[in-house]
Fold this sequence. Notes:
Elements: E1 2-6, H1 18-30, E2 33-38, E3 55-58, H2 66-77, E4 83-87, H3 91-103, E5 108-112, H4 117-124, H5 128-140, E6 143-146, H6 149-158, E7 166-168, E8 191-195, H7 206-218, E9 225-229, H8 234-246, E10 254-258, H9 263-272, E11 275-278, H10 287-294, E12 298-302, H11 307-311, E13 316-318, H12 323-334, H13 339-353, H14 356-368
Parallel strand pairs: 1-2, 1-4, 2-3, 4-5, 5-6, 6-7, 8-9, 8-11, 9-10, 11-12, 12-13
Amino acid sequence: MKYCVLFPQAKNVHLIKDVGMIAYKLHKLYSCESYVACYNNDKYDYIDGHLKGLKLDFIDKKRNNDIIDGSIYLKKNAKSIDVLQLFHVTIRSVIYAIMYKHYNKKGKIFLKLDCTEELLNKIKNLNFAGKLLFDYFFKKVDLIGVEQKRLFNEIRSLLPRFENKFIYIPNGIDYDLIHLDDLTYESKENYILHVGRLGAEEKNSEMIVDAFIKLYKEDNSIPWTLVLAGDSTPEFNGFIKNYTDQYPGLDEKIMLLGQLSDREELFKMYSKSKIFCLTSHFESFGIVLIEAAAAGNIIVSTDVGIAKELTEQGGSIVSDSDVDDLASKLLSFINDNNSKNLCKHNIDFVKENYDWDKIVMRLYKEITSY
């Protein structure tokens, strides 16, 4: 089976996400000829390293327009592609689907929806012309992957005429690339970890800092450290400096690590930490939550992406931008004697439900049943 992921914007980092991982696992598990079709945007180190066997097919940048260039690519290659993976409900994906099915009527399309509440609301509010185009697109598509269980159930109820096309396909963890077998709660340190683009408005990283400062002001001997990983803006660095200048000794309680681009280094930090905190205003899925939980972190997060599914059996959801709520939830887990059991539960839960191997096995079964 020849499996093509058409994503012109793909860079090296995308390959270890759903853009590359599904195709890679289909190759590894089922010997599919898998490749990502994209512009030559980057140095793709993962191809010759962790993802050996996955191929790239570069799209010619003839018109410098991804819709036109992608369509030209499909005109040339559609007949040789057995399964085409597309992303999102966009005009680009609609045109790609039309082009592919025109040149390969027997080919199959898997649409990775990246489903959000916002998308469901847009579907509900479509005008007449929008509904016609939407229906036309979904009729072209053979399988539609939805990443969250709650949204999977909602969209099937919203679109019953397409309910048999929907499949629950979350994003996952590649356990071949990480080593968590010897991980125990006792090996962890009193770290509260936050990962993201520090200072980016949507990430709202100031919230976790404010909450930690609130705990520090109440007890400056608190034996916990706030660890911040990710590129930071000058404004965010100044924000941190204002606090450390104001509170002597605080600089020993806050660690700014910068960007951890090496996956092994990132997972080492996940493994050391006990609590993972996400404060974003918005996330479509929130893969960092899965990664952190896989390493046994207690999840404390705003209600974004996959957070609710991960915290149903432990962890906590906090109100967006409510610093007092976050500080209170953090303190409850700092003082919780059940943290060891929750650590083990998260490790087991993610391994059972978000292992890329199991996810792709389910997808392969659906693809080959048509």
